Amino acid sequence: MEAKTIEIAGYDYAKTLLEQPEPYGIYRAGLDPLERGILTAVMAHTGNNQTQAAQLLGMNRATLRTKLNRLRMLP
Fold first, then answer.
1. What phi and psi values does residue 27 have, to the nearest 5 degrees?
2. pLDDT digits (tens, 9 = 90+) for 5-54
3. Domain ranges in the chain?
4. For the residues of the chain, what is the DSSP string, one character each?
5. How much is the pLDDT for 23?
6. How far apart are alpha carbons 75 and 41 in whole angstroms?
7. What are phi and psi of 72, to 5 degrees?
């Protein structure tokens, strides 16, 4: 998928969220599903090796663990 396609999907999703009766927290609501998908794919690719996953994602392991914890993806 091209970056432009993701950008358009994000725009459309944000517009949908803004149409809610009381829009709040749309930044997290929009990013969490995308982040969860990326983390799921990378963790599966590395056999759940957090060190390798962090390297592929360009972040340190502690940051990865924080994201996995926030998204309730840690066992």
1. -65, -50
2. 999 999 999 999 999 999 899 999 989 999 999 999 999 999 999 999 99
3. 3-70
4. --HHHHHHHHHHHHHHHHTSSS---HHHHHHHHHHHHHHHHHHHHTTT-HHHHHHHHTS-HHHHHHHHHHTT---
5. 87
6. 16
7. 55, 45
Contacting residues for 26 by C-beta, under 8 A, at least 6 apart: 14, 17, 18
Which CATH architecture is the domain 3-70 placed in?
A: Orthogonal Bundle (1.10)
Q: What is the pLDDT of residue 1?
A: 64
Apex 73 CA angle, 71 and 75, nearest 5: 145
User: What local confidence, expressed as pLDDT, does residue 37 receive?
Assistant: 96
pTM: 0.85
Length in residues, the chain: 75
